[in-house]
Amino acid sequence: MEIVGYKAYTAAAGESFNSIAFKFYNNEFMADKLMKENPRYVRMLTFEGGETLTIPIYDDVESKETLAPWRR
Known about the structure:
Number of helices: 2
Helix content: 10-25%
CATH architecture: Roll
Structural class: alpha+beta
Number of domains: 1
Largest sheet: 2 strands, antiparallel
Order of helices and strands: EHHE
Distance between the termini: 21 Å
Strand content: 15-25%
CATH topology: Membrane-bound Lytic Murein Transglycosylase D, Chain A
Strand order of the largest sheet: 1-2
């Protein structure tokens, strides 16, 4: 699994690394990848809202950024 880019994301109140991982990767078990890129927020169980996170985009995870244009 290789990082092909990054996306900024503003967390909403009540979200967690797990819920954000599920939103971006359809897999809450990738929360550790988000934590690695955002060590400043690792101790937060839920976000207050307004925190800007760095979301890594992986080459083998289907997302809007990695799907072919006709599949978006």
